[in-house]
């Protein structure tokens, strides 16, 4: 199986163990990078790693 490089918002929320609304707030505040593919907003795996690192927690 190929590991994902982009997560849907709900998958990113699940990976970080936070709610979708918190994910959207992180996106709005610029703390979490996303990309748009068509109408979908996706979160790169690297963006999750960068966010966690910004918290001072090892990924």
UniProtKB/TrEMBL annotation:
GO molecular function terms attached to this record: DNA binding
Q: Name one Pfam family in it.
A: HTH_17
**Out of the domains of life, which is the source?**
Bacteria
Database matches in InterPro entries = DNA-bd_dom_put_sf (IPR009061), HTH_17 (IPR041657), SinI_DNA-bd (IPR010093)
Every copy of the Helix-turn-helix domain together lies at 6-54
What protein name does the entry list?
Helix-turn-helix domain-containing protein
Lineage, top ranks = Bacteria, Bacillati, Actinomycetota, Actinomycetes, Micrococcales
